[in-house]
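User: Structure please.
Assistant: Input sequence and predicted structure:
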Amino acid sequence: MTYAGNLPSKQATKVAVHRQRISITAWLQLALLILLLVFIFGPFYWMVSTSLKEQNDTFAIPPKFIFTPTLEHYNFVLFSPSAIVPTGLQNSLIVATSTTVLALLLGTPAAYVLARFEFRGKRDLWFWFISNRFVSPIVVALPFFLIARDLRMLNTPQALILIYLTFNVPLVVWLCLDQFRAIPRDLDEQAKVDGCNLFQAFWRINLPLAIPGVVVSAILSFIFSWNELLFALILNRSTGQTAPVQAANFMTGFGVKWGEMMATGTLIVLPVVIFAAIVSRHLARGLTMGAIK
């Protein structure tokens, strides 16, 4: 065996330079990774830490990274006589869960039909689904408000559920389409031979195999519905307020209650993080499946 020390001087120099370049590259990658982690988790840390700080520590200059935590802000938003955040979290849960379930019930069969069958107007229908994601929410905010007013649906969760479906159903169709395309068509033929009709082939064969895409669709639909602020702020100004609207209500003309706002924000983020952690096993597979042919 020949070692680097026994190589000619020029070749040994090349080996040393190559190792130095590898070392520099590794350090650069580590620095970029640390910067990325700070960029991702920095705002979350700041939100949680602010929710645990007293008011004097919140506005301290320079900022305090070591402090005595307090739960007074959580106690105020959850247990004070004027606390409305629990109601807002309940409203958000009802709206987000209902929207997610309905979006899956409507979107997965539509994605299966688009993936399996050819029919007139298929390309136009597919473009219509995708084009719904092109529209900026502020463009349709006023029309949706007028429609909800005329139907007497203001300050109701039903109005938000219907509006969120217009954005989440196309998302489900978009994400699940490639999942169904990746499933061999031979399975449908074998299911027909075994006596399955179209719905049974979809429900028993294709849908279980497309679970990763369905899970990703559910996660994103839930997150978008849970975090949405614009329509919730316009359509629900009293009894039907969701948690993001109540968090925004801590911004008043007399100032911003940062501790209470950050405590509410942490309570809003926490269920989504737990939900994503539970289904994370399917998340990576669902995001990548269909991308590689």
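The chain has two domains: 4-51, 74-288.
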